[in-house]
Amino acid sequence: MDLRSELLKSIWYGFTALDLEKSGKVSKSQLKVLSHNLCTVLSIPHDPVALEEHFRDDDDGPVSSQGYMPYLNKYILDKVKSCTQTHPKQVDELCWTLTAKKNYKPAKDNKNVLPGKDAFHLWSLFNFLSEDKYPLVMVPDEVEYLLKKICMAMSVELNCVELEDFISQDAVRQNGFTVWSFLEMMNTGKITRGMGQEITSMAIEEVYREIVADVLKEGYLWKKSQLRRNWKERWFTLRPITLDYYTSEDRKERQGSIALDGNCCVEVLSDRDGKRCMFCLKTLSKTYEMSASDTKQRQEWTAAIQTAIRLHTEGKTSLHKDLKLKRREQREQREKRRLAKEEEQQRFQALQEEKERKLAELELLKEAQRQAQALLEQDEMRRRQHHEEMQQALEVQLREAKESRATMQAEMVLKEEEAERQRKRIKELEEMQTSLEEALQQEIKARQDEEVFRYAQTGLLSEEEDKMKALMALQEEQEEYILKTQREKQELRQEMENKSRALEEAQRQLEEVRANRYRVDQDVVAAQRKLRQASTNVKHWNVQMNRLMRPIGPGEKRPSGGGSFSSFQIPSQRDPGLRLRQRSEEPDEECKENVDNSSSAGSGCEGEREERRLSQASNGDMDIP
């Protein structure tokens, strides 16, 4: 902490003391007086022009601390030089005088009230040990450190119970110690345990000089004169840069000063000249011999001088400033360790919770896995059963298809035989009934239709055979997919579904082929029915022609009038009945040629004609009249 920071802390108290309304602003006239007094105390030359220019009367309203800082930095603090040690003390006394009138009001009936000088020393110690934040507060660790120093100076033990009770208060625990709460605690007398006021004042002054005035050690020592070489008792005051010695402990008459630097060293000497516990301080130019009262004092003095030399070598001007920074660093490190520990605990707790959550999730996953395994096994079992049922159904369908194919082939053989017979009969009918053009055309058309239907039936049969081959191929592929079930479960389901759909499509197409075959069979039956109808028509025409063309036998009388023949028209040569009749009359003419030779020949011819008609009727060509 540099000189500027020390001065700012005291000036802050002076500024807040002038803020009577506690609004954070001070009137310009009061700030002029404060600035003038600071320049006087710090031995800074006054600049009335700048002072009046900065605080003109035409400005509106009072000035806040932020508005006062530019002038304070530029015209006062920038001109302060770290020269004598009296300047900060005089500034502290000035600011204490301003702030004590407003804030320090101890109870008058209290016997333990500290005098003004001790309160000022404690106020200065508080400013020195307080944090560099405004408003100024002191952490409990620093308060405990200061109280331990004071109690150690009084040779008493610190009452930690009372200190803990005071620290446990809400305002102190939340905001820290303010200087007025600290002075109030000291005025209670509980910390000093009712020690005398004089002892308390001496202890406070000793701690003040040690911490604020940077006095490492004070006390009487015997010093050997450089000129007369005699021994004189002097009051020595050790600071980090000098070792001053006075005539007495009131420090009014200084006899000399020894500058300390890195070239100085201290050595322990043996007893001589009637002096004991001797040591010397060596500089570049001189050697100072001194004698302590006892060995403990000599050890303390040599250690303190070595500490001062070390501080000077390290470039440090104050031991307690260095110790304060170290304590602050330790507090920060402790706070960091505490925060780190809390963070570690929170992280550990979070990890523990995460671990528990992961374990719970793992249990849930295990349970879900078990359930999924059970469902998978059930699904696998159902799938296998379904595959077995499908395989059995396919085998049954395949057997039925084979049986149907065999039956159909047998039927086709029968149909072929029947068709062969029909062709022969049709050929005979064509030869016998060439005269019946209309019936013949119908018969030819029926035969053509039958051929078309037969070709369609043959195509359907070949298509059915292809479908059966595809069905067999699908069955083989299905058996291959069944063998790959364990390796490709997921793919097998899709493939089985596709093959099942293909099989269903094949079955549907097979059903359509069967339906088409059935329709072709119906068409063949219809064609056969038409053929039979044509045959029946031919027979009917033959019967009619036989009835119309019946010959007159010998001895029979021709009907009178001849009415039946007069109305009968001789059919043309295109009439197949006439041609049939002519063929039947050709033997009759031969019989007529021989009728004159034998009278019994007439009856023979007639018998021959009757026999021919019977034979034709037996063959189905004509009916017996």
Task: Throw out a few tags for this protein.
alpha+beta; single chain; 9 strands; 18 helices; seven-stranded antiparallel beta sheet
Polypeptide structure, described:
- By secondary structure, the chain is an alpha+beta fold.
- 66% of the residues lie in helices and 7% in strands.
- The protein has helices at residues 3-18, 28-41, 48-54, 65-75, 86-103, 116-129, 140-153, 160-167, 170-175, 179-187, 197-211, 295-313, 319-432, 437-483, 489-548, 563-566, 576-593, 601-618, and strands spanning 25-26, 63-64, 217-224, 231-238, 242-246, 254-259, 265-269, 278-282, 287-291.
- It has a seven-stranded antiparallel sheet with strand order 6-5-4-3-9-8-7, covered by helices on one side.
- Helix 14 runs antiparallel to helix 15 (489-548) and helix 17 packs antiparallel against helix 18 (601-618).
- The longest helix has 114 residues, at 319-432.
- It is rod-shaped and about 205 Å long.
- Mean pLDDT is 78; it is low at 82-86, 558-578, 587-605 and 617-625.
- Residues 576-585 have a biased composition (Basic and acidic residues).
- This is DEF6 guanine nucleotide exchange factor a.
- Keywords: Coiled coil.
Question: Which helices and strands appear, and what pairs or packs with what?
Answer:
Elements: H1 3-18, E1 25-26, H2 28-41, H3 48-54, E2 63-64, H4 65-75, H5 86-103, H6 116-129, H7 140-153, H8 160-167, H9 170-175, H10 179-187, H11 197-211, E3 217-224, E4 231-238, E5 242-246, E6 254-259, E7 265-269, E8 278-282, E9 287-291, H12 295-313, H13 319-432, H14 437-483, H15 489-548, H16 563-566, H17 576-593, H18 601-618
Antiparallel strand pairs: 1-2, 3-4, 3-9, 4-5, 5-6, 7-8, 8-9
Helix pairs in contact: 1-5, 6-11, 7-11, 13-14, 14-15, 17-18
Region (Disordered): 550-625
Pfam family, one: PH
Keywords: Coiled coil
